[in-house]
Amino acid sequence: MDEHRVALVTGGTRGIGAAIIEALAGDGVRVAAGYSSNREAADDMASRLAAKGHAVSLHQGNVGRPEDCERVVGEVLGEHDHIDYLINNAGITVDKTVRNMTVEDWHAVLRVNLSGAFYMTKAVLEHMIGRDFGRIVNISSVIGETGSIGQANYAASKSGLFGLTKSLALETARKGITVNCVAPGFIDTEMVAAVPKEALERVLANIPMRRLGRPEEIAHAVRFLLHDDSAYITGSVISINGGMEM
Description:
Blueprint: E1 6-9, H1 15-26, E2 30-35, H2 39-51, E3 56-60, H3 66-80, E4 85-88, H4 103-131, E5 134-139, H5 143-146, H6 152-172, E6 177-184, H7 190-193, H8 197-205, H9 215-226, E7 237-240
Parallel strand pairs: 1-2, 1-4, 2-3, 4-5, 5-6, 6-7
Helix pairs in contact: 1-9, 3-4, 4-6
């Protein structure tokens, strides 16, 4: 990739986000990592990259707050001059059945996972339109396609990203901007590691490949969608789930 390109990755300090940042930095892309509160994890990720000769700028903000999104985009533009790639990866879970889920539980997840992608996109979109170039990738989930007991809020937020992706892709198709979505299955991250062993065994039994995905496998798909050679791909959803939907 062009070493002058700049990527902003939300939720970028652990798991899939960190893998995306490492892959892009390895390609020479200048990377800005957004994180919400865990400065220690952010510093650890930046130190790992520094040891490999890559620099990353860190930007704290809650994507569920539009004012934070606007501030973070302003910081990145001030430090890097422009933003070519936006990867909306930030996400949270508050798992409860609908009967036990509070209204705040519902809104907390939608606010970060779905509205956060909208707020970040709004904050950067005029800049991309003004430059006639941009790549936006939303990180969804297989749960948005299948649903899951105890995850109605999470499933709704991740499914909502499909509609956001396709609508924005239509609106920007003539403006040099592509908008796509990656829907990972069960990936070997801290979030999945917290799943009880018995439940995880049931999950693996439903994956034809009988294994969890690796964060770097998601990062490879994101790199593909950002590449200039993928300029004719927009409004697409790439599912990476070991064959769960076959």
